[in-house]
Amino acid sequence: DFGHSSELAFVVEPSDDIAVQEQPLILYCQVEGIQPITITWRKNGVMIVDSENAFMLANGSLYVSRFQRLRGDGSSDEGEYDCMAQNHYGLLVSRKAKIQAATMSDFHIHPQNAVVEEGGVARFQCQIHGLPEPVILWHKNSMPVNTDNERYTLLPKGVLQITGLRAEDSGIFHCVATNIANVKFSREARLTVSGSHSTVYKDPMILVGPENLTLTVHQTAVLECIATGNPRPIVSWSRLDGRPIGVEGIQVLGTGNLMISDLTVQHSGIYVCAANKPGTRVRRTAQGSLVVQAPAEFVQHPQSISRPVGTTAIFTCVAQGEPPPQITWLRNGQILETSDHIKLKNNNSTLSIYGINQADEAIYQCLAENSAGSTQASARLTVLWADGLPSPPQGVRAETVSATTIQVSWEKPLQNTKEIIGYVLHIRKAADPVEMEYQEAVSKSTFQQLVTDLEPSTSYSFYIKAYTSRGASKASEVTVVSTLGEVPAMPSLFIKVINSTTVQATWEPSIKLGQHEGFKLYYRKVHLSQYTGPVLLASNVTAYNITHLDASVVYEVKLLAYNQHGDGNSTVRFVSLRETVERTVLNPPCDCMKDEQNNKTSTTGIIIGIHIGVTCIIFCILFLMFGYRGRLLMCKNVQEQLSTPQIPRSQRSATGLVLNGATRRDRDDRDLNGKQLDMNELERLFPASPSQEQKEKGITSAHSLSAPHDETQISTLPLDEFSIIEEQPDPLPKNPHGSSPAAPAPDHGPANEG
C-alpha cells in the first residue's frame, strides 16, 4: 500500500485480459478504507449500469455473463474498463484494463514446396494473426515433427528449419495454429531432397536474416539467421553499437538463430548476423532491430499530506518506462484542471497547490501511461483548520507613492485578534503566476507597509493574512494597484567642435535611460536667457550638428530624454569656438606641394644623419676595444720588469707605486730612486708615429691621497717620459689646493696587480 491514502486505497485493480466469445468474463476490483465505500465501473469512460449481461458482484468485481465482440445493436464488450471507489474522504479511479476478444485470422503465409540438394538447408514458414498469439506446431506426413532431432529447429513465429538435409527428410509438411479462440491448419508443402552432397565451392549467403521486433520486457525474442554455402559458413552475432550481447538469457537455436529470454530495456538495439567462410575473412551480414518496451512504473509515489489553510501543498510523482510515460493528475476521479493556484511542473511530475483552502481537500491521483501499460498512485490532501483562528484582515488598501514604491495599509480582523503574533503581506506582479509570489512579515502592531524596489508602470496584487501560533487566517481581499511611470534618466552628452561655426552634440544610448520616446536638444548664447529649441530627436538618434554659430561667444548646450511621463533631467555642456578661430589664424592652410618637398628633404637628411651616427658608434667601439687591450699588455710588461724587492705590507700604507702621477720634482729624483724602463720594450708594445705622440693617449694609475678608495685616471703623457719609481716613505705632500693634508692612503698593492 506504499504511496496510497490510508483512508481509501485499491488492494486489487483490474488487469488487461483477452476474453473468449460467448464465455463469461470477470474483472476484479478490491478496495480498502473507511466505510462506507461505494464502487462503480466504467467502460471507455462511461458509467456501466447493472444489466442481465453485466453486473457488479458483492466484492466489487464486474461480471460479464456472455462476452460479445459484436452485438446485434452494434455495441461491443471490448474496451477499457476501470473501477471507481468513493467514500466521504474522496474518490479513486483504478488503472485502465484493456479487454480484447480472442480471435484468429486465416493463414496469410502458407508453406511452399521446396527441392533442396542433400546436405543443404530447407526452410518452411507459415504465418497467422490471433489473440492471444497462436502457438504453431509442424506436422510431417500428418505426424508431429520430432523436435528431439537437433537438425530440426522450430521458431516461435511459425518457421521450421532443417539443416544437413538427408534423403529421409523428404515428405509433406504443414503447420497447425492453436489459441483459445480456434485451431487452424495450413496448406501442405512437399520437401524433396535431391542428389548427393556437392563439393563445389559456394560463397556464404544468408537466406533469411533477422526481422525488426517490438516486444515487452520479460518476453522472449528470437532473431532468425539461416545461411548456406560450401563449406558450411559459421554464423556469429554482434550488436551494431559495439556493446557485448552478454551470456545471461542468451541461447543459439539450430545453427545460427539467436534467442534472448526475459527481455529488458537494455536489450534494445540493432543486431547483426554474419555468415563467415571458415578460415577466411569472406562474410555476408544482415541486421534487424529489437525494441523492448517497459510499462510505466513509479519511481516515487505521491504522499498524503496535511497542510494549514493558506499554505502550499506539493505532490511529487515520478514514473519511468519505455517509451517514457505520460503523467495525468486526477482530483476525486476527475481530470485536474490547472488554474492560478494549481500548477503542474517538471513534465507534470510535480503538482503544486498554492494558498490552499478547504475546497482543495480531496484525493489526488497520478496516472502514468505508455503504449506498454499504465499504473496509478494516489494521495490525500487534508486541509487543517483550527477553531478560534482570526478572521481575514479588513480594509486592505494600496496607494502608489512613486514609480518604485507602493504603501499598503489594512485594519485588524474582526474576530479572534488576541492571539495574533503578526501579519504577512503577499506581493506579486499581477501578470506573474502564483508561484512568483513573495511575502513580507509585519509586526502585530503595524497596519501598514511600504513596499519598495518595484518596477515602474507595473501592476501589483496584495493580500494580507493574520498569523497565530496555531495557524493563519484566511486571506484578505486582494487589491491591485500600479506603480507610477518613470521619466528617463540623464543622458551622457559630449560636444565636439567641427569648425568655426559648427559643433556636434553626441550621446550614448543606455538601458539606464529606461523607457524613452526621444530626446530634446536646446542651445543658447550664455549671455542670453532664451534657448533655441527644443529640437525633437527620435530615440535611435545619437548625434546632432548645431550650425551657424557665432565664433566670438560661448554657447550652452542642453540635452534631455522624455517619455509619456514627462521630461527627464537634462545634461548641460558649454562650448567656445574662439580657440578654433585663433588656431586657424596662427596655423594657415599648408602648401601641400611645398610641404611634400620639405618632407622629402627632411627624410633624406634624417637617413644621412643615421648613417653618420652609426659609423661614429662603430669607430668608438673599436677604439675602446684596442685601447683596453693595449693597456692590459703594458701593465703586464711593467710588472715583469720590476726588480725592486717587494715592500712589506706594513710599509705599504705610506708607500705606493705611481704611474705618470708624480710631480715634476719627483721626476727629477728618478735617477736616484728608481730604474729606467726599457724604452725599446715600450715602443714594441705601443708603436707610435710622431704625429700620434701629440695625441691624448696614456694610462695613469695612482692612489689618490684624499680618497679612501682606488681610482683609475686617464691622462696624457709621451712614452719617452713613461717610467716606474718606488717612492720612499717621505712626508705626504700637501693638497695642491692648499687644504690640510689628507689622511694616509689605505693599504693597496701595486697598481699593476689590479
Walk me through this protein's architecture.
The structure is a single chain. This protein has five helices and 61 strands. With 754 residues, it is mostly beta strands. The strands form 17 sheets. Strands 2, 5, 6, 9, 10 and 11 form a six-stranded mixed sheet that branches. Strands 13, 16, 17, 20, 21 and 22 form a six-stranded mixed sheet that branches. Strands 24, 27, 30, 31 and 34 form a five-stranded mixed sheet that branches. It starts with 7 loop residues before the first strand and ends in a 28-residue tail after the last strand. Its main location: membrane. Keywords: Disulfide bond, Glycoprotein, Immunoglobulin domain, Membrane, Repeat, Signal, Transmembrane, Transmembrane helix.
